[in-house]
Design brief:
This protein has about 350 residues and is of the alpha+beta class. The protein folds into 2 domains: about 220 residues, BirA Bifunctional Protein, domain 2 (2-Layer Sandwich); about 90 residues, 2-Layer Sandwich (Alpha-Beta Plaits), CATH 3.30.70. It is about 25% helix and about 30% strand. The protein has 9 helices and 14 strands. The chain has a 7-stranded mixed beta sheet. The protein has a 4-stranded antiparallel beta sheet with strand order 12-13-11-14. It has a 3-stranded antiparallel beta sheet with strand order 2-4-3. Helix 8 crosses helix 9. The longest helix is centred in the middle third of the chain and has 23 residues. Bound molecules: 3,4-dihydroxyphenylalanine. The site of 3,4-dihydroxyphenylalanine has 11 residues, from strand 9 and strand 10.
Length: about 350
C-alpha cells in the first residue's frame, strides 16, 4: 500500500529539487534555461522527486507523489511547460525483504555509516552501490521491475512489448528506463532505480533499502487514449472533456477529434411534478430524450443545478445542453428550435413545468 500525496506545493527550494537528490552543482538540469526559477534558491519543481526527502524525513516508507511539474522546453505536440508526474518510493527493512532468508543482509559488512567517507565512490560498481549487498539489490530490482511491468500490462494489455534500458539518474543506482513498443516505436515510459543510500541516510532511515520510480502522466494518457497533441490536456472544450467524464477507469476510450465548428450552450430548467424529487428524477431518462430529439448535434448534457424552493418545497433541476454540428456552424435559431422541441418533449414525458 502506498500513501498518496497530491497536494504538495509546486514551489520548492533548490535544495529539494537538486541538493537533497545528490544532483551535482554543475548538472545541466539546474540551468536557468531549463527551469522556472523564482529566485536563486527557489523554483517551480522540475520533477516530483523533489519531495522525496521531505516525506522520508516525515517518517514515511511507501508513498506516491503526484503533481504538476514545470520545465522550460520547446512547445510542440509532445512538450508543454507544465505537465504531471507520479513519483514513488518504497522502503524495505531486512526483516521484510529477507523474511525467508534471515541469514542475508541489506548492507555489506564493510559498510560503516558513521564513517565520514562512507559514501565516497559509492556508485563505481555498475551492478550495485558499495554499501548494499548484491542479494538485496537484485531482490529489490526484481520487485521494482515486476511491479512496473504489472502496471504497464494493466494499462496497455497483457501482450505489450517492453524492454529495460540501463540509465543514469543522480538519485538512484543502478537505474533503468522502461520502454514499451507502441505505434511502431519504442516509447520511454518511466525512470526508476535503487535509491542512493546517501539520500536515505541524510533523511533519516538508515536500516532500509528503497526503490523509486517516476513517470509522466500526459505522455501515458496520450498513448492510451490516442490524444495527438499535449495542448488538448488543457482543453476546456466540452467536446473534449465529455469523452472522458463519468467513464469507468477501465473503459476503453479512443479520443475522437472535436469538431472545428463552434459549440452553442443552452440551459433548460424545470420544476418537477410533486411525485418526483431531485433525487428520484432519472437523469439518464432525460439524456435519452435529449439524444432522441437532438441526434448527434448534441455534444454533451450536464446537470448544472439542483434547487429546492424553501417555501413551496418544489424541486427544480437545470441542465446545460451543448450543441455542436460536426460539419458546419449551427445558427442560434436552429439551436433554439431543437431546444424548444426538447423542452416540450420533457413536459410531455416527465410532466415537468419549464421555468
Ligand atoms: N525525476 C526523473 C525525471 O523527471 C524521473 C525519475 C527517475 C524519478 C528515477 C525517480 C527515479 O523517482 O527513481 O526525469
Amino acid at each position: 500500500m502506498f500513501s498518496v500525496y497530491d497536494n504538495l506545493s509546486p514551489i520548492v527550494t533548490t535544495r529539494q529539487n537538486f541538493d537533497d537528490l545528490l544532483i551535482p552543482e554543475d548538472h545541466p538540469s539546474r540551468a536557468r534555461s531549463d527551469c522556472y526559477y523564482i529566485n536563486s534558491s527557489t523554483l517551480l519543481r522540475a520533477h516530483m522527486t523533489a519531495h522525496q526527502s521531505e516525506l522520508l524525513r516525515a517518517g514515511l516508507d511507501n508513498f506516491l507523489m503526484i503533481g504538476d511539474v514545470y520545465r522550460r522546453d520547446e512547445i510542440d505536440s509532445t512538450h508543454f511547460p507544465v505537465f504531471h508526474q507520479v513519483d514513488a518510493v518504497r522502503l524495505q527493512r531486512k526483516e521484510h525483504l529477507f523474511e525467508n532468508h534471515p541469514d542475508l543482509d541489506i548492507f555489506e559488512p564493510t559498510f560503516d555509516p558513521t564513517n565520514p567517507n562512507a559514501f565516497k565512490n559509492s556508485i563505481s560498481d555498475p551492478s550495485k552501490q558499495s554499501c548494499h549487498t548484491l542479494e538485496a539489490t537484485k531482490l529489490m530490482e526484481a520487485q521494482l521491475k515486476n511491479h512496473l511491468i504489472g502496471m504497464v500490462r494493466v494499462l496497455f494489455g497483457e501482450d505489450i512489448k517492453y524492454r529495460w534500458v540501463d540509465a543514469y539518474f543522480p538519485f538512484t543506482h543502478p537505474s533503468w528506463e522502461l520502454e514499451i513498443y507502441f505505434d511502431n516505436n519504442w516509447m520511454e515510459v518511466l525512470g526508476c532505480g535503487i535509491m542512493r543510500n546517501e539520500i536515505l541516510a541524510n533523511a533519516g532511515p538508515n536500516n532500509s533499502i528503497a526503490y523509486a520510480f517516476g513517470l509522466g502522466l500526459e505522455r501515458l494518457a496520450m498513448a492510451l487514449y490516442k490524444i495527438p497533441d499535449i495542448r488538448l490536456m488543457w482543453s476546456t472544450d466540452p467536446g473534449f472533456l465529455s469523452q472522458f467524464q463519468n467513464k469507468d477507469v477501465n473503459a476503453f476510450i479512443e479520443y475522437k477529434p472535436v469538431s472545428i465548428y463552434p459549440h452553442c450552450t443552452n440551459d433548460l430548467s424545470f420544476w418537477l411534478p410533486p411525485t418526483l424529487t431531485i433525487d428520484t428524477f432519472m437523469s439518464n431518462d432525460f439524456y435519452d430524450l435529449v439524444r432522441e430529439i437532438g441526434g448527434d448535434v448534441i455534444e454533451q448534457v450536464k446537470l448544472k443545478d439542483k434547487f429546492v424552493h424553501p417555501k413551496t418545497k418544489k424541486h427544480s433541476l437545470c441542465y446545460s445542453i451543448v450543441y455542436r454540428h460536426l460539419e458546419r456552424t449551427l445558427t442560434q435559431a436552429e439551436v433554439n428550435k431543437i431546444h424548444e422541441e426538447i423542452s416540450s418533449a420533457a413536459v410531455n414525458a416527465f410532466n415537468v413545468t419549464i421555468r
